[in-house]
Backbone:
């Protein structure tokens, strides 16, 4: 997948709420050595992106979550024991060069991620706007929800 991301010509940054001192080991175990991983223990980025919290039922007992873990195990990956807040949901965002949120996908559960094709389509739309001189704009939460 990293070759596909490289072809898109974007910079990937991972934001985690784990303390900085624990991220180096996580980064290595997840094979993210080539990606910048930032620590956000106060979850300011999570709040800015409107990333919510899951319920115990959705995060731990939903069959979609267990199916995703099974897929990872079949591919040779092992889920790590949870050390942090397992109810904090994540997301994926495209941020324009001037720091504005251009597109965001808010995960509804731990297994819920946009496909690379969906991210690529959003990036293509963002670039098309830049090519026509349309600057990326800040979005209200309702706009971001509609985009994600």
Residues:
């Amino acid at each position: 997948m990293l070759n596909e991301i490289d072809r898109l010509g974007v910079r990937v940054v991972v934001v985690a709420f784990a303390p900085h001192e624990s991220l180096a080991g996580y980064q290595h175990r997840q094979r993210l050595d080539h990606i910048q991983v930032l620590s956000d223990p106060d979850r300011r980025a999570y709040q800015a992106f409107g990333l919510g919290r899951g319920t115990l039922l959705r995060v731990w007992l939903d069959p979609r979550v267990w199916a995703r873990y099974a897929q990872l195990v079949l591919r040779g990956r092992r889920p790590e024991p949870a050390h942090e807040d397992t109810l904090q949901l994540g997301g994926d965002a495209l941020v324009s060069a001037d720091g504005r949120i251009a597109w965001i996908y808010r995960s509804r559960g731990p297994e819920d991620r946009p496909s690379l094709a969906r991210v690529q389509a959003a990036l293509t739309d963002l670039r098309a706007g830049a090519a026509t001189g349309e600057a990326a704009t800040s979005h209200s939460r309702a706009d971001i929800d509609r985009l994600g």
Q: What stands out?
A: The chain is about 45% helix and 15% strand. Helices lie at 2-8, 20-29, 44-48, 56-61, 63-74, 116-131, 141-147.
